[in-house]
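REVIEWER CHECKLIST
Item 1: Sequence provided? yes
Item 2: Single chain? yes
Item 3: Sequence as submitted:
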Amino acid sequence: MPAKIELGTLIHGTLRNEDLLQAFASELYRLAGGTGEGDQPQGIINEAMDLLDNASEEKFEEFASELVNDLMDALNEYAPDGYYFGSIEGDGSDFGFWAIEDED
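Item 4: Structure as written out by the authors:
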């Protein structure tokens, strides 16, 4: 059974791709029930870990930002109705699951 999301901050105070890749891949793994199985989690998790562990600096710089975005999209799939995964308004370095604010 997949784990439940934890609302609030997952990682804060950094925009370094190395930090974000590790945190996002770990959370995706946890949410996928520790198996990384599902529609896309295993492939993205493997790609992130490979990039972190084996990529040259040049390859890392070329692919890291796109992979961070892919991980954020995958995590957002776990957000319940009325919530999203990303940075909170007002602090671009505070990533987690947040309530969608009404614009009214």
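Item 5: Key structural point noted by reviewer: The mean pLDDT is 88.
Item 6: Recommendation: ____
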